[in-house]
């Protein structure tokens, strides 16, 4: 599942599997800072369960980062199980085993790339980008979708899923959210939002924007009084994320 068209914003989801807490935390932090959505697992069976229990409305896993030395189900066995289920998600193996034989075995059971420990986070990020770029080129065109954390916007179907639940938005609320999700972290003034969502011919004032932002927050945020998605930039306007 990915966005098509331009401009668009799709937050790729990466599943990181490692039983070493320090590595799991550092990799998760680095990927999150790059804007990826990160799921984690500390053993092979837990990771397999995450893949098998994904619901249709949930974002798919776009990349797996996999340690080989895992409890309960080894990395190699996990990789075999994923491929036997017909799942073609890219898999990047992280391993302290760096011999040619180890690398060949990892690639032969279905991994797409192999990085030996210790590794640099910049190299890991670069390899992730390359695998995700290749993945996006291989996938067939899907309907336009915007994804940010727990919010999924289906543009053709005019549907919004928040934390697994579908919510109803008015046309202006939907257009506002689409504009925000296409421009994450960009700050918009109220006048810019009026122009882009309501149009140049709109004769109302900027309070209209504030009212619609409040309505959107009530539908999107867990706590509208402390919003996590639509943030007020005092003295200017609003940004998303």
Provide keyphrases for this structure.
241 residues; alpha/beta; Rossmann fold; Arc Repressor Mutant, subunit A; 2 domains; four-stranded antiparallel sheet; elongated; disordered N terminus
Structure, explained:
This protein folds into 2 domains: 13-138, Rossmann fold (3-Layer(aba) Sandwich); 150-240, Arc Repressor Mutant, subunit A. The chain is 39% helix and 21% strand. The two termini are 21 Å apart. Mean pLDDT is 86; it is low at 1-9. Helix 4 (100-108) links the parallel strand 4 and strand 5 (113-116). The strands form 3 sheets. A 5-stranded parallel beta sheet has the order 2-1-3-4-5, sandwiched between helices. Strands 6-7-8-9 form a 4-stranded antiparallel beta sheet, covered by helices on one side. A 3-stranded antiparallel beta sheet has the order 10-12-11. With 241 residues, the chain is of the alpha/beta class.
